[in-house]
From TrEMBL:
<dbReference type="InterPro" id="IPR050303">
    <property type="entry name" value="GatZ_KbaZ_carbometab"/>
</dbReference>
<keyword id="KW-0812">Transmembrane</keyword>
<feature type="transmembrane region" description="Helical">
    <location>
        <begin position="47"/>
        <end position="67"/>
    </location>
</feature>
<keyword id="KW-0762">Sugar transport</keyword>
<keyword id="KW-1133">Transmembrane helix</keyword>
<feature type="transmembrane region" description="Helical">
    <location>
        <begin position="139"/>
        <end position="159"/>
    </location>
</feature>
<dbReference type="Pfam" id="PF03609">
    <property type="entry name" value="EII-Sor"/>
</dbReference>
<keyword id="KW-0598">Phosphotransferase system</keyword>
<feature type="transmembrane region" description="Helical">
    <location>
        <begin position="87"/>
        <end position="118"/>
    </location>
</feature>
<keyword id="KW-1003">Cell membrane</keyword>
<keyword id="KW-0472">Membrane</keyword>
<dbReference type="GO" id="GO:0005886">
    <property type="term" value="C:plasma membrane"/>
</dbReference>
<dbReference type="InterPro" id="IPR004700">
    <property type="entry name" value="PTS_IIC_man"/>
</dbReference>
<feature type="transmembrane region" description="Helical">
    <location>
        <begin position="179"/>
        <end position="199"/>
    </location>
</feature>
<feature type="transmembrane region" description="Helical">
    <location>
        <begin position="206"/>
        <end position="239"/>
    </location>
</feature>
<feature type="transmembrane region" description="Helical">
    <location>
        <begin position="19"/>
        <end position="40"/>
    </location>
</feature>
<dbReference type="GO" id="GO:0009401">
    <property type="term" value="P:phosphoenolpyruvate-dependent sugar phosphotransferase system"/>
</dbReference>
Amino acid sequence: MVGQVIGIFFISLVANSQYFLGTSFIGRPIVTGMFVGLLFGNLKEGLLMGAASELIFMGLMGIGASVPPDEVIGGILGTAFALKNGLGVSAAITLVLPIASLSLIVKNILYVLVFPAMTHRADHLADEGKITRAGNMHLWMCFLQIAVLTIVTTFAFAVGSDAVGNLIKMIPKAVTDGLTIATYILPAIGFGMLINMTYSKNVAPFFFLGFVCAAYLKLNTIATAIIGAICAAIMYIIFDKVRNNSEETAAKGDEIYDDF
């Protein structure tokens, strides 16, 4: 148990540092699921749980002042709780969203109370001409967020793993079966939200082309990606010729204008 807690600590530490490391996306569920799976000696299940969780969070992102559920804490704890208690992918997905939503309480405290105070302190330091200390204040905000979220994740796993396992075992089978069915809908919702943000008339033909390749032609992801790359190459050739023809036409028009 102690080794698992230490492992969760280091996984959380690295995952919560993803923005400090240059938006590396190392904290995404599909990545943390792999590391949690290695920690519990079940890499395959960890990857499956991480991939299933990633489908949910794929369409969730912060827009304006809205803060989406925390995929780092949700992905780590959901996968860890499920693996520790011998549960499957459906149980992991059931746990991921509630945990990710609850973790927003911690983030909101940082964003609403702590960080504004530190930002005002940085403004005062800048007014006093202490530019280096003002700049370091922003680094301290980053380090504080990493430390707080890492401690919260580790503490939640150390204290709540047995409680979560006992709670899930108390849920009637009919309820767990319903949750299992619902987990298959959540990835579809994630994709739907992603399509809602990226859909346009120019993108729609390629979306339906991919759907036909997967649903009717039964092609795998690699084959579908190759077809997409071929379509992109054909479009590049066509657009390149159109651009060259336009430039030639414009050049001829300039020559005729010069003759006049």
